[in-house]
TrEMBL record:
Gene3D superfamilies on file: 2,3-Dihydroxybiphenyl 1,2-Dioxygenase, domain 1
Originating organism: Arthrobacter sulfonylureivorans
Any matching Pfam family: Glyoxalase
Bilayer-crossing regions: none
Protein name: VOC family protein
Domain of life: Bacteria
VOC domain segment(s): 1-110
Entry-linked PROSITE patterns: VOC (PS51819)
Length: 116
């Protein structure tokens, strides 16, 4: 991650993360039980990932939302670009975007469970 400050702004302003700690080149942010460690060039966490794990698309940050359409509208209004269209399946609906470092972020609205 080249710009930790941009990543902190992205997650706190758009998704309600809270900054626990922030130093030059490193930040620790949380949203409910999810903790993200944002590591820039001076941080040990920014060391090269082994080649067999470095390909994009292997991991993504998964954020559950109550109203996917409302979130899409809010984020588009904030100038964010999405990397996919909405995809719907038996488990729910999702859409992908990327953070400032290119990490995938999935917004997911679970399907409504039928009452018996």
């Amino acid at each position: 991650m080249d710009d930790v400050g941009a990543a902190v702004d992205f997650y706190t302003k758009n998704f309600g993360f809270t900054v626990n700690r922030q130093f030059s080149g490193f930040a620790d942010v949380t949203r409910c039980p999810l903790r993200l460690l944002l590591s820039g060039p001076p941080s040990s966490g920014a060391r090269a990932t082994p080649a067999e794990y470095a390909a994009a698309g292997r991991n993504r940050i998964h954020l559950i939302v109550e109203d996917l359409d409302a979130e899409i509208g809010r984020l588009r209004g904030a100038g964010l670009q999405f990397r996919s269209d909405v995809v719907e399946g038996p488990g729910g609906r999702q859409i992908l975007l990327t953070d400032p470092a290119g990490n995938l972020v999935e917004l997911f609205q679970p399907a409504q469970q039928a009452t018996q």
